[in-house]
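Render this sequence as a predicted structure.
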Amino acid sequence: MTDHAALVALLAERSIKRGHFTLASGKKSEYYIDARLTTMSPEGLSLIGALALATLHKSGWIVDAVGGLTLGADPISYAVSYASASSGNPLRAFTVRKEAKSHGTGRLIEGPFKTGDRVAVIEDVITTGGSALRAIEAIRGAQGRVVGVLALVDRGEGGREAIEAAGTSVISLVTAVEIIEALGA
């Protein structure tokens, strides 16, 4: 089984729920993908880190750091950074807060992010693209250069198109259709 097929199977087994849900975007859906049930597991971290790093290399994007809006992007960013540690180009991971801290440094971006970094924005599940667009805005506001968005799952509900319409390329490791098809297998 390929890493991609193993990831689809793991997401189908652990992360998809059927029912009636209201998503973070406010949209209604017959299924919910709780990617954290996969991204925060040892098997998920191992698969995602290696697969995402290979995908970034194939993309041709030149990247210094990876990160996105907390909480969904965090374990994926850390997995990619860890997987890159022994590569010729280790990638730093960072977190974009939903709002700046009111104490301490008051930062919106936490971790070893640097001004001028070329960044792949990480997203767990793209629905409308809102979370990725918020992260892009914060990174650009901190003088980072966004080279693209790497999503674990694309629900295929317009989010990719919204991000691309704003001028940023998107790559997803898996689609919701693939996960749903794996449920029937």
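Summary. The chain is about 40% helix and 25% strand. Strands lie at 16-22, 28-33, 65-69, 92-96, 109-110, 118-126, 145-154, 170-175.
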